[in-house]
Amino acid sequence: MILSSLMLKAFLLGVLGSLDSGGETRACSVKSFRLIFDHVKGKASVMHYWKGPKRTGDTSKLKIDRQVRALTLEQEFPLTMMKLRLGLFLFDLVFRFDISASVTSSIFTTWVKFRAKELKWLIVLPDRIVTHRNLPDMFKKYYPKCRVILDCTEIYIETPSDLAVAAQCWSAYKHHHTIKFLVGITPNGAISFLSDFYGGRASDLFIVEDWFC
């Protein structure tokens, strides 16, 4: 059965919020969800859905008839969030939303590309004055000059069909195929930097040196 309004509300309260935290955190997550969705829904209503690099083409002026879509925008957005937040398999989402695998894949790919373009302005490195003004008390005491905290992270991916790509993406640490990238956050926890993606084979040292040296 397609995600109902009641199920959507349960998702917002449960998945986006921390299940182990109080209502204040969950309410904040719901508020953030609505804020982001309301910001992008205008442009999302005219976006063209991904059908592969050869079939999608230049779609900047094309408008999609929402009546022919399997889900509403308000259902497509949490579908994407569920995939990113929980790492659900494609056919899990197919079952939950009662749509085909091809439509699910198209929705997810479209929203990921769309959000990467429309929300990239959220990732910004504040200047030193702003960073210092918002330093947590412990940082003011022990790390007053800290501006950004860097670390590499990995995301599990399906096994690539290309053997050369599969070899580049194999992570000996995770014992799985992954993509890896460098993340920077400000001392108060806001994401302020993202590097390009690397195969899981790349070491943290290699990524840092390749990006900054």
From TrEMBL:
Annotated DDE Tnp4 domain residues: 150-209
Q: Which Pfam families match?
A: DDE_Tnp_4, HTH_Tnp_4
User: Which Gene Ontology molecular function entries are recorded, alphabetically?
Assistant: metal ion binding
Keywords in alphabetical order: Metal-binding, Signal
**Alphabetical list of InterPro entries matching this protein:** HARBI1_dom (IPR027806), Transposase_HTH_dom (IPR027805)
Q: Which cofactor does it need?
A: a divalent metal cation
Q: Where is the signal peptide?
A: 1-17
**Presence of keyword Metal-binding:** yes
All residue ranges annotated as the Transposase Helix-turn-helix domain in the record: 70-120
Report which superkingdom the organism of origin falls in: Eukaryota
Which PANTHER family does the record cross-reference, listed alphabetically?
A: THAP DOMAIN PROTEIN (PTHR23080)
Q: What is this protein called?
A: DDE Tnp4 domain-containing protein
What species was this sequence derived from?
Stylophora pistillata
Its taxonomic placement starts with: Eukaryota, Metazoa, Cnidaria, Anthozoa, Hexacorallia
